[in-house]
Design brief:
Blueprint (H helix, E strand, L loop, with lengths): L2 H6 L8 E6 L7 E5 H6 L1 E3 L5 E3 L12
Amino acid sequence: MGILDWLNGSEDDSGIIVKSTRSKGDRRPIIDITVDDIRKGIATDEYGYRNEVVLFLRKNKKDR
């Protein structure tokens, strides 16, 4: 399964964690960014702070 399959939403992959990172909110808790968060473009932390999720795609180093 590729990343584009996830974005189309063909299957229920909302529980798959893609990355764990720190929130940009005041208390900076660790949040898990899931496939569902990437689809929505927002990952909400435990205190309700809404973090924007942006996906960057780039070519392999050989192709640049």
